[in-house]
Known about the structure:
By secondary structure, the chain is of the alpha+beta class. The chain is about 25% helix and about 35% strand.
Amino acid sequence: MEIRKIEPRDFAEVAKLENENWTLASTPHVMDSTVEKVMKKILDGESYLLAVEDDKILGFLDYSVRHRSKYGKHVATFGVMTVKEARHKGVASSLIKQFFDIAKSEKFKKITIQVMGSNPEALQLYRNLGFIEEAHLKKEFYINGNYVDDYSFAYYLDKNLL
């Protein structure tokens, strides 16, 4: 498996995968991704890392600065997704570990992610990777007749901030 930055030839497949895999079980947003929207996110400063094997995208991680304020530029936020057949095979972990290295080189000191309580596998993954739960917002979303908690996790690249 190779982890690489997104290329223009990937935009259509990434948009398709976003629509297929970002569901209300993992995000409180209904996806309507297109090639144009992927390009706009990149032009607005978002970056994508792709996990690819035999020219097939197994997953991706998108990241950006969490805060637009100059006082929060040390914090990055991200989302990570793997296709169904590649789950539980280390793809997400590999993407996140590669992201740690890139984030350090880009001078980030802290990484954050929001995780819905309806995604217990993701909650466990972040805990296993050393993320710290910083907030637990109970019944934050109401989706398909159910209240869903939201969690905020952080990973400190600069251990002096702990």
